[in-house]
Amino acid sequence: MNATPKRDSVYDEYFAAQRDDEFSMIDLGPGALTHAHLVEQVFLVPTDYIRRLGTNSTMTWEMMMAAAWEALTPMARHGVGPALGAQTLAALGGNPQRAAANPRRHVRLILTALDGFRGRNLPRHEGRGYVELGRALVGFRRIPDAMTAYQRGRALLEDVGDDHGLRAAHARLAALMSRLGLYEQALLHAEAGQRVGERLTSEPGGQLPVGHAHFTEFLHDQRVRALTRIGFVDEAEAALGAWRREGGHLGNSFDLLAATAELRIRQERITEGLDAYMRAIDARFAHLDTVTLPGRTHYLENSVTLFGRAVGSALHIGRPDLAVGVLAAMATRRPVRPDDAPPPVAADALRNIDAQVSELARRATGAAVARDHAKLFDHNDRARALLETRDTLLHETGRSERPGRTTVEELAFTIPRAVGPGELALAYGRDDLGKVIVFAVHDGTVRHLPLDLSADEAAELTALAHDECVRRTGTDSVHRLGEAVLEPVADLLETASRVYVTAHGVLEDFPFHAAPFRGRPLVVSAEVRALPSLAPLGSNGGRRGPLAGGSSKAVVAAVRQPRYELLPELPALRAEAAAVRAAFPHTTGLYDDQATAGATLGALGTADVLHIAGHAAFEPAQPNMARILLADRPLFAFEIACAPRAPRLVNLSGCRTGAERRSLGGEGEGLAAAFLAAGTETVVAPLWPVRDDAALAFNEALYGELAAPGVGLAQATRRAQLAVMADPRFAHPGLWGAFTVLGSL
Predict the structure, then answer these.
(1) Pair (525, 573) in one structural domain
(2) Hey, how many other C-beta atoms are within 10 angstroms of the C-beta on 245?
(3) CHAT domain spans which residues (predicted)?
(4) Which of 72, 301, 360, 402 has the fewest CB atoms in 10 Å of its CB?
C-alpha cells in the first residue's frame, strides 16, 4: 500500500496534481482486471482510514470496499476525471449491496464515471462503465434504458477485445432477458457468454483468473433456467450435468441447487424439488449471520422467489411444517448470546471504530439539529459502512466459528415442539396468488389456513388501522382487519393463553394484541407476543429467567425538553422514574442535564434495565440516524448498535421509538433494532406517538407488575395493557395498544 501510482494508470494524472498523502493505494495486481467492475488494478482509500484501523489490523475485501467508497467524496472535490470514474466502478461494483441501496444515487454516480472516461480513448473503461450503468438502471426500473446500456457496453468491449468484460455483459443481458420473460434471448446470451469463457485462458501456474468461477457458475445457471422455462427439460437436464462436471467443488452451491429444484418441479418431481430447495436455502444461509446487514438483505431480496416456491412445494406435498421451517430460515441473524464477547485480537481495531463512531455522531448531531436531510442521508450511509467494518472485524476474528446455522429441516422439527401447552404461534405471509395465508403452530402440529384477504387489501387496511390509531379517529379498520386475520384460527385461539405472532411482508405494523376476538381485544384472553420471525422459537437461544427486582440494576435517563429542539415539555418523566425505582430499588437516575449521551451509553455497560424517557426521532430513509434526544445531543441508533454490551430490558418511552425499517427476514434498523443488535433481550416501545398521560399510566402499571415476584415481562406487559385499556381516558387502541414488546422470548 502506497501513494505511488502504477505506470500507465489513469491515476497518474490525478496524483500529478495532488501533493499530499490524503490517499493510499491498494494494488490488487494484474489479475484484478478479470473483475468486471474493476478497470484498474489499483484503487484509492483514505490514508486516515488506514491509520484509524491500526497497524496490526487486517483489511478484508468488505473493509477495502468500504474504504474505496469513503474515498469518493474527497476525490470528487478535485473534479471529474478518469481516476474518479475508475474509483466509482471499484466502489460500486465491489459492494453491490451499497450500490443497490439507493438506485438514483447509483445511476448518478455511474453517469459521472462515464463523463470521466468519454473522449479520453478509454474504450474498455467506458464499456465496463456502461455495463455498470445497465445494472444501475435495472435497479432504477428503467429496463429499456438498461438494455441499451448493456448493448452499448457489449459493443465497446467486443471491439477492444476485453473478454472478461464482454462475458460479464452477456451475463447481465441474459439475466435481464430472463427477468423480462424472454427466455430464448436469455439462452442466446448465456451461450454467447459461455463461448467467450472458453476463449479465456488460465493465469500462469494453472490458476483460474479472479472472478472466472463466479461468471462460469452464473452463465450455467442462466442457461439451465432458460431451457427449463422454455420447456426443453431434456436439454436442461443435459446442461445441468455439464454444469456439475465443470463446477467440480461447486456441486453443492446455492445456484446449482436452486436451478436443480426448479427443473425438478417442472418435471413434476415435487419431493425431489423440495429437497433441492431446502438444501439450496441451507447452502446460502448457513453462515449468513456472519455477513453484514446489507449483504443479508441483498441475499434475501434475490431469494424471494426461491422461498415462495419452496413454501409452495412443501404445501403441495402436505408438509406445512417444512413450509414453516422455510419461513423461519428467512431470519438472517441468530439472537446474540450472553457469552458473545468481542475477541481480544480485534480489540485495537474496534477501539478505532469506536473513535470513528464518536466523530460521526458529532457530525450527525450538527446535521440533525440543522435538519439537513441530505447530510443525514450521507451520514446514514457512513454509519452503515462503519457497522459493516465492525461486523467484519468481529466475524473474521472468531465469532463465525460458532456452531453452524440451524437447517430448514431442523427448524421444521424444533418449532412445533417449542410451542408448549396453551401456546399458539401464528405466522402470516402471502402465497403465489397474492392471498394472505397463516401458518398455525399448536400442540406439536402445523396447520396451513388461507385467508379471504389479498395482500394488497391487507396492506391497505394495515395503513388505515395505523392511521386510526395515530389519529384516534375510530376503530373500523382495526376491527375489520382483526376479524379477517383471527377468525380462521378462532378455534385455536379459544384455548390459547399465549400467542406468538410474526408477519412476513404484510401486517408487520398491525397491533395484533388490540385486534378484536369474540368482541374483545385479543390481549384480554391471551398474552400476545410480536416476534420478527419464528426462528427464535426454533433456537430457544434467548430464554432466560425473569428480572429480579431486588438484585437487578436499573438506570433511568429522562429529558423533559432538549435545549437544541423546539419541542413540548414532557412533565411526567419524574413519575415514570419513580415507577422504575419502585420495581428496582437499585436504580440510578439521570435527569435532564445529567442525561447526556455519554452517560446513557455508559449505562449500557452496567445496567440490567434501562428506561429512557423523552423525545425521539425516526426517518425511514435513514434508519441508522434514528435518535433519542438527550440533554447535550441526540444518541443515534448506530452508536447503540456498536455498544459492546446492552441491558437485558430496554424500555423506550418516547414517540415512535418502536418504528423501524425491516428486511424480509424480520431484521430491522432503528432504535429498537439497534439495542437488539447490541445484545438486549427485550425492548418495550410504542409503535406510534402516544400521549404523555397514557405513557405514564402504562409504565406505572408495567413496573408495578414487574415488582411482583416471579412475574415475567410478557405477563407484566399484558397486565399493563389491560389496566390502561380499562381506564376510560385511554380506551382507544391508539393509546393503550401502541405499546409493544420486541426481541427474544
Answers:
(1) no
(2) 9
(3) 477-744
(4) 301
- Please count the structural domains in the chain: 3
Q: Round to whole Å and give the CA distance between 186 and 167.
A: 13
- The residue with cell 498523502 is 21
What are the distances in angstroms from CA 32 to CA 35, 81, 559?
A: 6, 21, 53
Residues in the chain, pLDDT under 70: 1-7, 18-20, 53-58, 201-211, 247-252, 286-296, 298, 332-347, 392, 395-405, 539-546, 548-550, 656, 658-659, 661, 663-667, 744-745
Q: Are residues 720 and 680 in the same domain?
A: yes
- Predicted structure pTM score: 0.83
Print the domain residue range for 283: 80-199+211-329
State residue 432's pLDDT score.
Answer: 74
Residue of 86, 193, 183 whose CA lies nearest to 150: 193
Nearest to 125, CA basis, from 109, 107, 113: 113
Are both 534 and 589 inside the same structural domain? no
Residue-wise DSSP of 609-640: EEEEES-EE--TT-GGG-EEE-SSSEEEHHHH
Q: How many CB atoms lie within 10 A of CB 675?
A: 29
Euclidean distance between CA atoms 370 and 264, whole angstroms: 58
**DSSP 3-state assignment of 436?**
strand
% of the chain exceeding 90 in pLDDT: 50
Q: What is the pLDDT of residues 669-681, one digit of tens each?
A: 789 888 988 888 8
Going by their DSSP bridges, the two strands 554-558 and 660-662 should be labelled as unpaired
